[in-house]
Amino acid sequence: MAKKVVATLKKEGGVKYAKIIKAVKNPTTGAYTFKEEIILQDEVNSALKN
Fold it and tell me: Quick one: 18 exposed, middle or buried, by C-beta within 10 A (0-12, 13-18, 19+)?
């Protein structure tokens, strides 16, 4: 389960970035933690598949 943040991080004429937040389940306790990443906007789909 992951979601893409609505606001993307970008500069005029530069590389576009996006911030994604993933819910990661702990196998021992079953609790969820959230992992945040800032990645290139072109790599969003491949990062969410993992």
Answer: buried
